[in-house]
């Protein structure tokens, strides 16, 4: 699919990190972009800096997602590209023992469920809304739209304390091919990017020795990923019509250690 001023795109989690880099890359290529994010301050700031449109969206809410898609389409027309970058997690062992009291504490199920709802269900919720809209369009060169999801190296290399996050991201990987098959008759593609360790705002303020240790884990190049590299792959997945139903690792060949 060609990326130019005729393309309307939506990026969830587009006000920071991987999403922000993708917004910038799409705008540089001429696309009309709507930023879906929970943070109005950073969302409006990003929109002002890039010429994109900000729409507040909570991917945990059916109503919020439906309203956000309706507003984005009102402002810039039906999207033909959706890039899902919204997500997050926690770090809690499956069961832990208090070092002081010895009390045994299971992972709270509600906190496990929240991570799955945010990542897996939130991504799927946005995909279904977007694909339903894309199905109303006439095909261009045989396709109606493109979906890009974001998983994580944790989907296959989950570390200690990442049971919820690993399960949530593995769910995104696992649903990619079935969604591609479901949407194939409608001319809509989907692919998933599985990033390794990227230099995002999550590492703002991290001590240099921590960054050095993370860099050392990557076989080559020996550094954390740059968000612009994620964005470059996301745009290629939009452009390359033969890429469908795939999950692509973008991680410098890292395989995460247990901790």
UniProtKB/TrEMBL annotation:
Keyword Oxidoreductase: yes
Superkingdom field: Bacteria
Name the record gives this protein: SDR family oxidoreductase
Gene3D superfamilies, sorted: NAD(P)-binding Rossmann-like Domain
Keyword list, A-Z: Oxidoreductase
Pfam families according to UniProt: adh_short_C2
Native source species: Sphingobium tyrosinilyticum
């Amino acid at each position: 699919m060609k990326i130019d001023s005729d393309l309307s795109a939506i990026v969830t989690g587009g006000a920071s990190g991987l999403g922000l880099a993708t917004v910038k890359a799409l705008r540089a290529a001429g696309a009309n972009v709507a930023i879906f994010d929970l943070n109005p301050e950073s969302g409006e700031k990003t929109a002002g800096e890039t010429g994109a449109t900000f729409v507040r969206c909570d991917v945990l809410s059916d109503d919020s997602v439906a309203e956000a898609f309706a507003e984005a389409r009102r402002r810039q027309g039906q999207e033909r590209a959706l890039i899902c970058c919204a997500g997050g997690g926690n770090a809690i062992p499956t069961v832990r023992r208090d070092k002081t009291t010895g009390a045994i504490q299971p992972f709270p199920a509600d906190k496990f469920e929240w991570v799955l709802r945010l990542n897996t269900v939130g991504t799927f919720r946005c995909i279904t809304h977007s694909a339903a809209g894309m199905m109303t369009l006439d095909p261009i060169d045989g396709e109606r739209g493109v979906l890009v999801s974001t998983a994580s190296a944790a989907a296959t290399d989950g570390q200690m304390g990442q049971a919820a996050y690993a399960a949530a991201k593995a769910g995104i990987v696992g649903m990619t091919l079935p969604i591609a098959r479901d949407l194939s008759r409608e001319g809509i593609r989907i692919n998933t990017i599985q990033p390794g360790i990227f230099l995002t705002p999550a590492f703002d303020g991290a001590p240099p020795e921590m960054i050095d240790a993370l860099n050392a884990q990557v076989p080559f190049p020996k550094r954390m990923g740059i968000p612009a590299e994620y964005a470059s792959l996301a745009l290629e997945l939009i452009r390359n019509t033969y890429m469908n139903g795939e999950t692509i690792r973008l991680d410098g060949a890292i395989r995460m250690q247990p901790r």
